[in-house]
Amino acid sequence: MMLSNRVLNRTLLARQHLLERSSLTVPEMCDHLVGLQAQDSPPPFVALWSRIADFDPATVSDGLEDRSLVRITLMRGTIHLVTPPDALRIAPHIQPELEKVPFRKGFNYGAMVGLDPDEVRKHGEAALGDEPMSAADLRAKAAALYPDRDAGAVLQTWLYQLPVLQTPPRGKWKDSSRPVWSRVEPWLGAPLDPSYPLAELVFRYLRAFGPASTMDMQTWSKMTGMKAAVDELGDRLRTYTDERGRTLYDVADGELADPDLPAPVRLLGWYDNALLSHQDRTRIVPEGPFLGTFGLAVSPVLLDGYLAGLYKVFPDKNVARLRISPTRTWSAAERRAVDAESHALLAFLEAGKEPQVEILEVGADLRL
């Protein structure tokens, strides 16, 4: 069966809870989406606000404090907000690839070339120990142990080699404190679980992002072995083709969305996984410039389910400005809908400040 781009779009939006806001709790949403992109502090809050009805940001802050949520390096080597079970069972799949990165010639201009990876790891384990430690303190230990190497590169190497997570207050609502790192096991009081099958992780990816190709799966995870995982899932999956004839896999009981379903305006956080988790992004990003080329804190505007603009928030003491650069011409009705959602987002992000929304010309520079 061939699936149109429009069916893939509406199915992705439905599974991402972007067609209507959900009643799922924050941990339930994190589990369903296999984590939320959290490379910076604000995006998970915007992602959850866009997906959960009456979302209270305090639930994330409280979860980080009571350790029912964690920020950890996972898919694509980036920080994700996940539940503890996922931290413990996904990390063992990610670590082998992460640990290769620092000893390649391209890493920090070859700063770690020539060192024994196992020895560096042992020094890192001893330096970090079982208690959280700031990056600055870890860098000082790296400088003492490796005086002839770049301390920042050694620190980065440890953060790749050791399964680590970021402890609060970083990641709490309105808190962009510098990272304080902890090894995963002492923070969560449990060992990593290397027995979790890659096939199960792929199955969950398809529940949230499918139908998808094996290359889409690899783009999402930056892991290999997708075809073997798909084969292992057997009749738990079904197959389709897309408009270009490529094979797409999906969970056998996965519902395909009606392509005529209306898609409301959604303003997502920068680097939202809905836009980053397929090799072929045309199901949500039309051909043309991608938001990743526009810089930090530039975020996507979805209109009729597709990327149709970019926005950025500029808060100051009394005023919160949200500037939007459309990537195509919008109708008057679309402009009104974006304006309304933008004011709602400012009320969430910058409550008490005067909201100002400015829709610029197509392709205009977002900088003030």
Which H/E pattern describes the elements?
Answer: HHEHHEEHHEHHEEHHHHEEEHEEEHE
What share of residues are in beta strands? Answer: 15-25%
- Report, as a whole number of angstroms, the end-to-end distance: 48 Å
Helix fraction, binned, reads: 25-40%
DSSP summary, beta strand count = 13
What overall form do the CA principal axes indicate? globular
- Order of strands, main sheet, comes to 1-3-2-5-6-4
Q: Calculate Rg over CA atoms.
A: 21 Å
Describe this structure as you would to a colleague:
With 368 residues, this protein is α+β, with helices and mostly antiparallel strands. Helix content is 39%, strand content 17%. It has helices spanning 5-15, 26-32, 42-51, 58-66, 84-100, 117-128, 135-145, 151-161, 184-188, 198-209, 214-221, 226-233, 273-276, 332-349; strands at residues 36-37, 70-73, 79-82, 133-134, 164-167, 180-183, 237-241, 247-251, 266-267, 299-303, 306-315, 319-326, 354-359. It has a six-stranded antiparallel sheet with strand order 1-3-2-5-6-4, with helices on both faces. The chain has a five-stranded mixed sheet with strand order 9-10-11-12-13, sandwiched between helices.
